[in-house]
């Protein structure tokens, strides 16, 4: 009860705070006009171990087949504690030297996970990394516009309260986050404004932490309380995350929102299954990744395992009266 009161107080405080900034927007139009193809991977950087290299190989195969435009990372890019600095050899050992297939030598748009915040978080955000590998485009929160689809990349680690109050033996690098409350308030306001301005047919939000999950971490209450209302109020089609090391598809019972987890980039097999209030459509406890193909009228995603087998696919279409003009 005390926690609920604290959360309500926090929401009221958030609503009273103001932000004037805008999220950075990157435009990346598809090679094939009106047809975007990407891969989504999360929770991967382990110097090739725990089948990271096998998953990487299959990403190359599927990436070539689909002639993908880019890759999205749902975070936890480097285990266990992010990068130690811009010269950390893990950048090569867990990224550049692992994802070597030509088809995935495309931009990678990455958000940060909780493990990334346990290192030098500013290193991953430093554009100097692009001099080492030009693919690596990591920011806290930003937008990738691909015409008919907008990806809203959201920095979720600061939301989880116990990283601040009960970090245990972990150290979180909160530099440049003035206070949790102000940071989240500004971010939610910027996101809300950006979603309202978006003319894309498909609005997809990407963050590291789960909203709905049947696996180890389960739901993230702070995101359900603070971020989910913004997504539902703005007709977001899907929330895509990592954090739990699995592949899963859960659909909302009271909105059109879908929760999609792609966090199988390396270590997996937690052997946990928790019940969920929303509808669980698919769950795979092992390693893998997903592809996403989007046109003006249809969005389709496929989950693959570490051998490249397609485990599950799901598609949805927009009725003509739902289509928004896109630029
Ligand atoms: Fe995580």
UniProtKB/TrEMBL annotation:
Major localization class: secreted
N-terminal signal peptide: 1-21
Cellular location(s): Secreted
GO MF, one annotated term: metal ion binding
Residues bound to Fe cation 2: 76, 114, 208, 243
Keywords (A to Z) from UniProt: Glycoprotein, Hydrolase, Iron, Metal-binding, Secreted, Signal, Zinc
Cofactor: Fe cation
Entries under SUPFAM superfamilies matching the protein: Metallo-dependent phosphatases
Reactions accelerated catalytically: a phosphate monoester + H2O = an alcohol + phosphate
Binding site for Fe cation 1: 43, 76, 79, 245
GO cellular component: extracellular region
Binding note for cofactor: Binds 2 iron ions per subunit.
Domain spans labelled Calcineurin-like phosphoesterase: 38-246
Stored InterPro entries: Acid_PPase (IPR024927), Calcineurin-like_PHP (IPR004843), Metallo-depent_PP-like (IPR029052), Metallophosphoesterase_PAP (IPR051558)
EC id: 3.1.3.2
Family from the record: Belongs to the metallophosphoesterase superfamily. Purple acid phosphatase family.
Official protein name in the record: Purple acid phosphatase
């Amino acid at each position: 009860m005390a926690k609920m009161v604290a959360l309500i107080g926090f929401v009221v405080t958030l609503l009273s705070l103001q932000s004037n900034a805008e999220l950075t927007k990157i435009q990346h139009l598809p090679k094939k006009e009106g047809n975007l193809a990407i891969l989504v991977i999360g929770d991967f950087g382990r110097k090739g171990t725990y089948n990271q290299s096998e998953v990487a190989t299959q990403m190359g195969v599927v990436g070539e087949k689909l002639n993908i435009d880019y890759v999205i990372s749902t975070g936890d890019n480097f285990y266990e504690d992010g990068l130690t600095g811009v010269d950390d050899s893990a950048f090569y050992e867990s990224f550049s030297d692992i994802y070597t297939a030509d088809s995935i030598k495309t931009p990678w748009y990455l958000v940060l996970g909780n493990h990334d915040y346990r290192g030098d978080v500013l290193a991953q955000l430093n554009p100097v990394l692009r001099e080492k590998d030009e693919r690596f485009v990591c920011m806290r929160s930003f937008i990738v516009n691909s015409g008919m689809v907008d990806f809203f990349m959201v920095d979720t680690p600061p939301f989880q309260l116990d990283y601040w109050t009960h970090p245990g033996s972990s150290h979180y690098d909160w530099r440049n986050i003035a206070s949790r409350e102000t940071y989240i308030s500004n971010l939610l306001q910027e996101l809300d404004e950006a979603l309202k301005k978006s003319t894309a047919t498909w609005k997809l939000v990407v963050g590291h932490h789960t909203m709905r999950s049947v696996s180890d971490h389960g739901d993230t209450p702070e995101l359900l309380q603070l971020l989910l209302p913004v997504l539902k109020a703005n007709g977001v089609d899907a929330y895509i995350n990592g954090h739990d090391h699995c592949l899963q598809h859960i659909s909302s019972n009271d909105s059109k929102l879908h929760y999609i987890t792609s966090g199988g980039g390396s270590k997996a097999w937690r052997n946990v299954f928790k019940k969920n209030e929303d509808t669980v459509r698919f769950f795979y406890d092992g390693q893998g990744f997903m592809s996403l193909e989007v046109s003006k009228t249809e969005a389709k995603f496929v989950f693959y395992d570490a051998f490249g087998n397609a485990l599950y696919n799901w598609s949805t279409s927009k009725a003509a009266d739902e289509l928004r003009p896109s630029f």
